[in-house]
């Protein structure tokens, strides 16, 4: 990959309302740095799942916490780093994420896990580590090449 990373940083407090606002702002920035419009929906779904998990689980024991979102595009790759100071993932590992069995009744659908399946499906690579009391989640997306 040649060229420089085109990117930005966005920081917000992890509340349900702030999440909606932040995701809208992040998606605007992502399209500005080169995420194709036809791919933005899938990227947004993955990012919404991650940020909602941070709000619901990582910061479940506190009123709110800060989320730092860094993104960059270089060539046909989008790299995202999301950092929070919330609760560590259980076992310090990413959930496996399994597809939901849709052959059951609505009330019988399992709680949790499907979001991680979607995130894994929409990304090329996902990595997690706990560093100095913070969760660091890195997502890589392959972008649709621009046609000249």
How would you describe this protein?
The chain is α+β, with helices and mostly antiparallel strands and 148 residues long. Helix content is 32%, strand content 28%. It has helices at residues 16-32, 37-58, 114-122, and strands at residues 6-13, 66-74, 77-84, 125-131, 134-142. Strands 1-2-3-5-4 form a 5-stranded antiparallel sheet, covered by helices on one side. A hairpin with a 2-residue loop joins strand 2 and strand 3 (77-84). Helix 1 (16-32) packs antiparallel against helix 2 (37-58) and helix 2 packs antiparallel against helix 3. The two termini are 18 Å apart.
Bin the helical content. 25-40%
Characterize the biggest β-sheet: 5 strands, antiparallel
The percent range for strand residues is 25-35%
> Separation of termini?
18 Å
Short description:
By secondary structure, the protein is an alpha+beta fold.
Task: Name a few traits of the molecule.
148 residues; alpha+beta; single chain; 3 helices
Topology:
Elements: E1 6-13, H1 16-32, H2 37-58, E2 66-74, E3 77-84, H3 114-122, E4 125-131, E5 134-142
Antiparallel strand pairs: 1-2, 2-3, 3-5, 4-5
